[in-house]
Amino acid sequence: MTDSFKPTWMLDAIYHLTPEQIHAKGIKAILTDLDNTLVAWNNPDGTEELHDWLDEMQADGITVMIVSNNSAERVARVADPLNLPFVSRAFKPNTKGLKEAMERLNLTADEVVMVGDQYLTDICGANRAKMRSILVKPLLETDQWNTKINRFLEKGVKKRVAKQHPDMTWRTSID
After folding, report:
1. N or C: which terminus of the chain carries fewer CB neighbours within 10 A?
2. What's the pLDDT band for 43 if we cut at 50, 70, 90?
3. Which residues of 140-164 are buried (b: 16+ CB within 10 A; e: fewer)?
4. What rounded mean pLDDT belongs to the chain?
5. Whole-model pTM?
6. To 10 degrees, the CA torsion angle through 142, 54, 12, 92?
7. Please, which pLDDT band fits residue 28 given cuts at 50, 70 and 90?
């Protein structure tokens, strides 16, 4: 049961990922959730740290694509100024949006990694799509109203995953 929600890695933040780590794992693209993973849900412009990280990934030829359950309008508000491709209405944990992202990038599940802050959507969806995943700590302690429901539901999942996989701890590298 908990294997559906077990991430491949756990990182303090997406910004800890480096091109060297990504290349070492054979990853060509990062699929990322939007709210509280890439940007704080209430700051669609992102931080200087985000802009620097995206510049680093782009300079090293690593594609970053947003895969979000949000509407196209909401995702475009963030993605367009950052010049990032995106899939909206991904319906995670359904694999529809993740498969669409891989098709658009012409990559396989072995060549991508899904990064997100939620077990029930991001990690479960990645596992169902047979791709590696990175769980990150939410950028903010607060969430939009609809995410609060998932956070409540995932408390039990989080405890079961931690109990069955004590080696899963927060890190600053996927090495």
Report:
1. N
2. confident
3. eeebeeebeebbeebeebeeebeee
4. 90
5. 0.90
6. 60
7. very high
DSSP code per residue over the chain: -GGGG--SEEES-GGG--HHHHHHTT--EEEE-SBTTTB-TT-TT--HHHHHHHHHHHHTT-EEEEE-SS-HHHHHHHHHHHT--EE-S--TTSSHHHHHHHHHHT--GGGEEEEES-IIIIIHHHHHTT-EEEEE--SSS---HHHHHHHHHHHHHHHHHHHH-TT---BS---
**Predicted local confidence at residue 3, as pLDDT:** 80
The answer, yes or no, to whether residue 147 has pLDDT greater than 60, is no
Tell me the residue length of the chain: 175
How far is the C-alpha of 120 from the C-alpha of 98, rounded, in Å?
A: 15
pLDDT at 158: 72
How many whole angstroms separate alpha carbon 107 and alpha carbon 99? 10
Compute φ and ψ for 10, nearest 5 degrees.
-125, 125
- Determine the average pLDDT of the residues in 128-156: 75
